[in-house]
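Dear support,

Our group has been running a series of protein-ligand predictions, and this particular one with S-adenosylmethionine is the one our PI (initials K.S.) wants archived with full inputs and outputs. We had some confusion internally about which version of the output was final, so please treat the block below as the authoritative record. The input we submitted was:
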Amino acid sequence: MPSRLGQNFLVNKEAIKKIVQKLKIAEKDLVVEIGPGKGALTFPLLKSKLRSLVAIEKDAELAEELIALKEKRLEVIIGDALVEMPAVASSLGGLKYKLIGNLPYYITGYFFRTLAALDNKPELAVFMIQKEVAQRMTAEKGKMNLLAAAMQIWAEIKIEMTLGARDFKPEPKVSSAVISLKPKVAAGINLAQYYTFIKILFKQPRKTILNNLRAAGYAKEIIEERMKEMKIKEEARAESLDLETIVKFSEKSFV
Ligand code: SAM
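Confirmed final output from the archive:
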């Protein structure tokens, strides 16, 4: 029976190898792993040439087993990744690091919000997440959505591979995907304003942009004028916009 901590352990050895390869580990690398569990990714990571590995595991029993290894390059933190990740990132100061994890699916959304708020983001991250979430996150013009707009503003995201339920024990109810995530600098963008705007824009995805903005209290004439300036059709829905247009649109004044 799957536990409340999202403990579906990866057992497909070939997949494990490929996932670790996606992190492109070099000798100098500091790596942080979220939810090492029984060590499916931890052991191959320790076999690589990385300099050190910090693993954050909430299940104390599983964490103790890793601590008992007394592996010099491994530091295990017993705790919640949502709390410990910001602490680890700030303890690294300006040092570069890479991040990996077969994420427990119940924290995915919260974890990415935690990551987005970090000043010191990883130079590269590789995560296993729910396939459907990975597809929404990487969607483009035509299928744009709130998650994609919220994530793509700070990272380049790519689906690297997909996995089936049989690659895990116990088998999860959903399919999984491995994504790579490369943070980018959102130079000159007012992120607070951007996030507020996209929540309004995608509030009711089936509604038109005009109706969503009107529901937020903006005047119809001003919205229509701004849409005209942006060359957005009156009946368009937010899903039809590309990221660049959304960013420019978010910078407009609606007062
Ligand atoms: N990395 C292992 C693997 O690939 O087989 C385990 C992955 S399993 C899907 C998720 C792991 O995250 C479990 O070991 C679980 O105990 C741990 N976990 C669950 N919630 C967590 C949290 N909030 N912070 C840190 N670890 C957590």
